[in-house]
Every structure is written in structure tokens, then in C-alpha cells.
């Protein structure tokens, strides 16, 4: 008699792994690498930095650079949400089950903008894959919201347009 095995769907976010940044300004490239890894696409930090060098500012990259890397370089459609609420972020994570890259200021020091990827979101907590930390970091909703810029980038279906 044959047995039936239950197959569980694996979502892109299930494949997220923490990737450390190799230099002080490379949180953006490391976060991009984490997002790509969820879809089986591997790039080195050096490859991403090399692509972005023409647009890179002295203190790192911005959302336009990140979107260009995905949309124009890789032909991967992304969505960028400005002014998103914590609940909106949680709903995107819960229902889309895709990696979400966020911009925030972990130290609350002026000029210390930083990229990370959402690892998990609950009603009152968030866990981030921070490329500057050796393990995922957890914040209460209130702690996070005071540091977050209210924007996030994610791939709704990672449509490859090639």
C-alpha cells in the first residue's frame, strides 16, 4: 500500500539566511544578496557593489539604486512602499511570504541609515536579518517604529522578465 506524504509549500521567505556585510557601507548589497538568495539567485557583494559603483554615494546607496539593480539589471519586478505602517508591513510579510528589505536607523544617530531584511513580524515584535549583526535581531514594535523610515521594498511575485 502506497503512503501519501504531505507536501508543504516552500515560500521564498522560508529560504532567507543572514548574510553579513564585509564593509561598513555594504548593508545595501548584503541585503540585496539575502533577498536574491531566497529565490536561488547568487551574487557576491563585490558583483553588486561593482554594478552600483556608478551610482554609489559616499555613504552608501538609496532606494533608486536598489530598484535599478533589481528592475533594470536583473529584470526582476519589485514594489516599493513609502509611508507603510507597521501593520501594513506585517500584512505584506504574512500574506505574500516574500523577503522585505527595509531602511532604518538602528542607533538613532543622524546619518546612520541602514538596510536590513525582515526575518519575521508578529503583532508586537519584528525580527530583522541585519547584515551588520551575527544573528537576527528582535525589536518590539515601538522600538522598531522609532527607527524605521516607513518604507520597504519587496518582490511581489519575482517576475523574471527575461
Automatic annotation (TrEMBL):
GO terms for molecular function: ATP binding; peptidase activity. One of its GO terms (cellular component) is membrane. It comes from the Bacteria. GO terms for biological process: proteolysis. Pfam families: Peptidase_C39. Gene3D superfamilies: Cysteine proteinases (3.90.70.10). Residues 21-155 form the Peptidase C39 domain. This is Peptidase C39 domain-containing protein. The lineage of its organism: Bacteria, Candidatus Cerribacteria.
Amino acid at each position: 500500500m502506497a503512503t501519501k506524504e504531505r507536501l508543504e509549500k516552500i515560500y521564498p521567505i522560508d529560504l532567507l539566511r543572514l548574510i553579513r556585510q564585509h564593509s561598513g557601507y555594504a548593508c545595501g548589497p548584503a541585503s540585496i544578496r539575502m533577498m536574491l538568495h531566497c529565490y536561488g539567485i547568487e551574487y557576491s557583494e563585490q558583483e553588486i557593489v561593482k554594478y552600483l559603483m556608478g551610482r554609489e554615494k559616499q555613504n552608501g546607496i538609496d532606494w533608486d539604486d536598489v530598484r535599478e539593480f533589481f528592475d533594470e539589471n536583473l529584470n526582476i519586478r519589485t514594489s516599493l512602499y513609502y509611508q507603510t505602517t507597521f501593520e501594513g508591513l506585517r500584512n505584506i510579510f504574512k500574506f505574500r511570504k516574500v523577503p522585505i528589505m527595509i531602511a532604518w536607523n538602528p542607533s538613532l544617530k543622524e546619518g546612520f541609515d541602514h538596510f536590513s531584511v525582515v526575518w519575521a513580524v508578529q503583532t508586537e515584535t519584528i525580527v530583522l536579518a541585519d547584515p551588520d549583526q551575527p544573528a537576527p535581531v528582535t525589536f518590539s514594535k515601538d522600538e522598531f517604529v522609532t527607527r524605521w523610515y516607513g518604507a520597504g521594498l519587496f518582490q511581489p511575485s519575482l517576475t523574471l522578465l527575461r
